[in-house]
Design a protein that fits this description.
CATH superfamily: Aldolase class I
Oligomer: single chain
Family: Belongs to the dihydroorotate dehydrogenase family. Type 2 subfamily.
Strand content: 15-25%
CATH architecture: Alpha-Beta Barrel
Order of helices and strands: HHHEEEHEEEHEHEHEHEHEHEHEHH
Structural class: alpha/beta
Function: Catalyzes the conversion of dihydroorotate to orotate with quinone as electron acceptor.
Number of domains: 1
CATH class: Alpha Beta
Largest sheet: 8 strands, parallel, barrel
Radius of gyration: 19 Å
EC number: 1.3.5.2
CATH topology: TIM Barrel
Protein name: Dihydroorotate dehydrogenase (quinone)
Distance between the termini: 24 Å
Subunit structure: Monomer.
Amino acid sequence: MYKLVKPLFFLMNPETAHYNVTGGLRAVNKIWGGSQLIRAAFNYQHPALERKVFGLTFKNPVGLAAGFDKNATYVDELVDLGFGFIEIGTVTPKPQPGNDKPRMFRLVPDEALINRMGFNNQGVEVAATRLRYIKKRKEVLIGGNIGKNKTTPNEEAVNDYTCCFDALFDVVDYFVVNVSSPNTPGLRDLQEKEPLMHILNTLQQRNMKNGISRPILLKIAPDLTNNQLDDIITIVKSTGIAGVIATNTTTSREGLHAAAELTKETGGLSGKPLAKRSTEVIRYLSEKSNHAFPIIGVGGIHSAADALEKLAAGASLIQVYTGFIYEGPALVKRICKALVK
């Protein structure tokens, strides 16, 4: 079915296509029997898929990466597609429009995307309010991906992260600290050891409410050197956070086949060209740390074989985004069936 409509969506601007797809999913969901129809087509459940990671029980290890549902607008609809977990965000304390359009580009020959969205979102309070009223909340685990506003200087970034952390604490199951997007000026400087330790230690100090704490994960860039990855391992162990998401988008343009006017666009590259590097980062972190913490693998997962490769490299869970756009919603079911086999 998706193969039939995909060419129509790919004629549209990527952002326009995104809102048409999510709007269409919502419209079907509102029709009597629509939700059940979508579940029958795309939802696959099996006891063997269950995973217990950083104290949480996931019904399956396939999640939707941050960026697809920034404002927690479509969680109920996305649950029907069979995801084991959904990560909303990146959210910031104050609403912000993001970078100027156009800011997302398809590199079809490479099955990739370049985006420079710039943390466009309606603000953390809007997302928190929506999450309080999710009808299918018990069916899925939700992660909150948090960042800083563009206008916040790096010296004050910790205040933005704590603001988002406090606002989402009661409505998410885990947190992701995003300091690795290439689309907010200076953000990746926060991946350096000293500022990162400060942010993570501050969040850990606040990580208790009514006897409950939330797993905190760190999302890292694929462009880090091995020495920087060694620092990440030290930071994770030292701060006691729950794990790492590897990886965010890359600034590399190596080996692309799309037209030069596309490949020269600034922003983060995702999709198939990222697959090898993200797997290398997962394997390095897993082996060098002696499997000391869980890793969520993301980057270039377009097939069940790609997912199995990430898991074999040391990932405990995986997330899709660009592969989901190129392959359609049946990708989740295909991966889950392959895992059971």
